[in-house]
């Protein structure tokens, strides 16, 4: 019943949507097609002379469809801005051999292909972010800053940037190597000492420095480990707004993520205080916590709730360990800087109780939780599809149940009739028979046949 209701109620809307989509495609396609090339088998031979930004998609994937209009805009803007990057898309299901050669595992996969190198894009799928990525990765891994003006210009432009200062050295070679790999994440520059402003005083050259948080910090080979692990840890501002994507990216630094969950639209006094405190810890207690913590705030608790599968209050404070999916919450509300410092210290020394995790129980819970939210989201976005996916099997199952139930009640009435014809003695006999059968649990059909002996007696 429900199934048919959904089917018919959403049918006209779906048809309308389809028609609109078809018409708008027909109207717009001549305007758009020029900027994004449909790639096929020939791509592998023809691509080497250019830098390519490619969307590997599957025709059935929802996220790919969502990316499609963004991708057209990316293509248009890169063409208009005179970028050397060419934009294409490839149906990875039609050219699966080539897609797997490029290391495509999910859809959509965005890659920048530059000669022998392939760079994965993992950030938010918005036009500006993708274009920024393309321009950054397509250019040289290390950009040199010839003048003080250029240095001041890039400082203003980028919230985080790495800079090599000095002449030729083994450190510079290492720096270029690290930059070629990590250019997907951030910017790498090099400069001579006279391009720096007076505010930057480096005691020793050559040096690798990160500029962020309105400050700069120097790489120390002995304390900070390998240059690439240091860059990986330092590539984010110490405090930043966090959403699902940033949380995923932050996780790759291997640090704990301390989050103030707040309501940004309608902030309460408590929520402003909590944010203020966590910002102070990030800025003033860098020496103590920077190595292990990334700090930030998240607007609303929706994302966190689904992540940890339980409800956190707004505002509240929590620490996530993204490597093992554990989380920590303070046992008492945090109202002062001391309380917050104590909480973070207790997480580090292991005295704070950990919740969640990636144990077997949590995994089962996750599967159930994800299944529920998938079903909900399918129904929300497309009731028609939801009905086909879940309504059809449900309908079949309920029909089967109905069939079985009615069949059983038929058996029952026959039994009753038979019983009437039986004497007390015979009834006892049949009860014995039934008990014996219960152990063997044959299906209803067999049961009917085996009952036949008692019928014979009646005859
Ligand atoms: C976070 O998880 C990793 C991996 O399981 C573990 O080694 C580390 O000790 C955890 N950190 C804390 C503070 O629990």
Automatic annotation (TrEMBL):
What GO cellular component is one of the record's annotations? endoplasmic reticulum membrane
| Chain ranges passing through the membrane | 383-405
Give its E.C. classification number. Answer: 5.3.4.1
| Compositional bias per record (Basic and acidic residues), positions renumbered to this chain | 448-459
Signal sequence bounds: 1-17
- Compartments it resides in: Endoplasmic reticulum membrane
Annotated GO MF terms: protein disulfide isomerase activity
For bias type Acidic residues, the affected ranges are 423-434
* Keyword annotations of the record: Disulfide bond, Endoplasmic reticulum, Glycoprotein, Isomerase, Membrane, Redox-active center, Signal, Transmembrane, Transmembrane helix
Every copy of the Thioredoxin domain together lies at 25-139
Reactions it catalyzes: Catalyzes the rearrangement of -S-S- bonds in proteins
| Recorded topology in the membrane | Single-pass membrane protein
**Endoplasmic reticulum among the record's keywords?**
yes
Check the record and name the PANTHER family matching this protein: PROTEIN DISULFIDE-ISOMERASE TMX3 (PTHR46426:SF1)
Protein name per Swiss-Prot or TrEMBL:
Protein disulfide-isomerase TMX3
Q: What is the lineage of its organism?
A: Eukaryota, Metazoa, Chordata, Craniata, Vertebrata
């Amino acid at each position: 019943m429900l199934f048919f209701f959904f089917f018919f109620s959403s049918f006209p809307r779906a048809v309308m949507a389809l028609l609109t989509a078809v018409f708008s495609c027909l109207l717009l396609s001549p305007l758009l097609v020029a900027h994004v090339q449909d790639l096929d088998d020939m791509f592998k031979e023809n691509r080497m002379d250019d830098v390519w930004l490619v969307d590997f998609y599957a025709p059935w994937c929802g996220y790919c469809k969502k990316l499609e209009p963004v991708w057209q805009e990316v293509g248009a803007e890169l063409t208009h801005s005179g970028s050397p990057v060419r934009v294409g898309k490839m149906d990875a299901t039609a050219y699966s051999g080539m897609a797997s050669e490029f290391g495509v595992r999910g859809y959509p996969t965005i890659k920048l292909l530059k000669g022998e190198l392939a760079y994965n894009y993992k950030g938010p799928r918005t036009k500006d972010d993708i274009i920024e990525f393309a321009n950054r990765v397509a250019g040289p891994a290390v950009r040199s800053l010839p003048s003080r003006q250029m240095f001041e210009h890039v400082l203003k432009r980028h919230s985080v940037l790495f800079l090599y200062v000095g002449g030729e050295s083994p450190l510079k070679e290492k720096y270029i190597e690290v930059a070629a790999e990590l250019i997907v994440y951030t910017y790498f520059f090099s400069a001579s000492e006279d391009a720096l402003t007076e505010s930057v005083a480096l005691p020793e050259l050559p040096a690798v420095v990160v500029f962020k948080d309105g400050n700069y910090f120097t790489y120390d080979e002995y304390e900070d480990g390998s240059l690439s692990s240091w860059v990986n840890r330092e590539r984010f501002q110490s405090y930043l707004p966090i959403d699902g994507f940033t949380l995923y990216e932050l996780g790759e630094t291997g640090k704990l993520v301390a989050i103030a969950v707040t309501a940004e639209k309608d902030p309460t006094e408590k929520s402003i205080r909590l944010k203020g405190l966590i910002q102070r810890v990030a800025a003033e207690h860098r020496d103590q916590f920077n190595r292990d913590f990334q700090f930030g705030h998240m607007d609303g608790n929706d994302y966190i709730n689904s992540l940890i599968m339980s409800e956190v209050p707004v505002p509240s404070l929590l620490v996530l360990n993204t490597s093992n999916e554990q989380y920590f919450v303070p046992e008492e509300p945090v109202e002062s800087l001391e309380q917050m410092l104590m909480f973070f210290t207790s997480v580090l020394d292991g005295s704070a109780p950990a919740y969640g995790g990636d144990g077997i129980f949590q995994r089962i819970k996750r599967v159930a939780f994800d299944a529920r939210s998938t079903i909900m989201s399918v129904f929300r976005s497309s009731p028609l599809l939801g009905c086909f996916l879940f309504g059809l099997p449900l309908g079949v199952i309920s029909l089967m149940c109905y069939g079985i139930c009615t069949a059983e009640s038929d058996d029952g009435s026959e039994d009753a009739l038979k019983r009437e014809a039986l004497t007390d003695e015979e009834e006892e006999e049949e009860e014995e028979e039934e008990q014996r059968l219960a152990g063997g649990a044959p299906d209803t059909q067999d049961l009917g046949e085996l009952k036949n002996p008692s019928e014979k007696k009646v005859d």
